[in-house]
């Protein structure tokens, strides 16, 4: 079956970890993840500048490694990301900001990508809250 | 068409669980994860409300969140791991997360 997974929570939220464990279990079960969509505060879960305390899980890094390892289609909502200061190099140059925090394997794109994923997947699973 | 409802917020902090219980249809499922598992605290009204739900409604709790909070889970509620969580989303036609 085809899953689309939307994450609405930052990397320090238990929801970000829960979404990752769900995604791992879906792939392990032989299912396909056709798209990840990180939305609202979930854009922080894709940030490359997150620094976790040494005695805590580095969920942002785990997500990055998971996406790269499985070559997933991983989209970060561009409008949600820009307003939260999560830019890729192109947007940082466009808006003359000093730092970029979104890079491969993540792509900045619009809500249309979520809409398309919902049309094409068997299940959309949203993670957020605590 | 059955729906799996997923709750993550504590029932003692807002009214999501109460609203959700009113909306559940006969074959729906309810999965508690994160702080929502506090609904299973023995002797609370939320736990009593869950135990009174019709038997056709599946009640589930994410095992790791239950363990992390050292809760005793009533027999009516099934503890599940992540592979079972994935399977549960496929057993229902729709999945609704109460974000």
TrEMBL record, chain A:
Enzyme class: transferase
Xref: SUPFAM superfamilies: DsrEFH-like
Organism this protein belongs to: Pseudomonas fluvialis
Keywords annotated in UniProt: Cytoplasm, Transferase
Alphabetical list of Gene3D superfamilies matching this protein: DsrEFH-like
UniProt cross-references to Pfam families, sorted A to Z: DsrE
GO BP: any one term: tRNA wobble position uridine thiolation
EC number: 2.8.1.-
Full protein name: tRNA 2-thiouridine synthesizing protein D
Any one of the GO CC terms: sulfurtransferase complex
Similarity section: Belongs to the DsrE/TusD family.
Coiled coil start-end: none
Protein's cellular compartments: Cytoplasm
GO molecular function: sulfur carrier activity; sulfurtransferase activity
NADP in keyword set: no
InterPro entries: DsrEFH-like, Sulphur_relay_DsrE/F-like, Sulphur_relay_TusD/DsrE
TrEMBL record, chain B:
Gene3D superfamilies tied to this protein: DsrEFH-like (3.40.1260.10)
GO CC term (a single one): sulfurtransferase complex
Pfam families: DsrH
Biological process per Gene Ontology, one example term: tRNA wobble position uridine thiolation
SUPFAM superfamilies given in the database record: DsrEFH-like
Domain of life where this protein originates: Bacteria
Official protein name in the record: tRNA 2-thiouridine synthesizing protein B
């Amino acid at each position: 079956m085809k899953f689309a997974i939307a994450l609405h929570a930052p990397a320090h939220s238990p929801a970000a970890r829960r979404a990752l464990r769900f995604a791992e279990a879906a792939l392990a079960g032989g299912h396909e993840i056709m798209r990840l969509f990180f939305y609202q505060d979930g854009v922080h879960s894709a940030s490359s500048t997150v620094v976790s305390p040494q005695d805590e899980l580095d969920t942002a890094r785990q997500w990055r490694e998971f996406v790269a390892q499985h070559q997933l289609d991983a989209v970060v909502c561009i409008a949600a990301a820009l307003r939260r200061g999560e830019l890729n190099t192109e947007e940082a140059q466009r808006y003359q900001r000093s730092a970029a925090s979104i890079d491969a394997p993540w792509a900045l794109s619009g809500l249309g990508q979520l809409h398309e994923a919902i049309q094409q997947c068997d299940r959309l699973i949203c993670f957020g809250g605590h | 068409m059955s729906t799996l409802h997923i709750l993550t917020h504590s029932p003692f902090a807002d009214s999501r669980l109460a609203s959700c219980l009113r909306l559940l249809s006969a074959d729906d499922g309810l999965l508690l994860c994160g702080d929502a598992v506090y609904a299973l605290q023995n002797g609370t009204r939320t736990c009593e409300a869950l135990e009174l739900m019709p038997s056709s409604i599946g009640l589930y709790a994410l095992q790791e969140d239950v363990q992390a909070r050292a809760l005793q889970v009533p027999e009516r509620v099934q503890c599940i791991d992540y592979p079972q969580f994935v399977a549960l989303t496929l057993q229902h036609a729709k999945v609704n997360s109460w974000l």
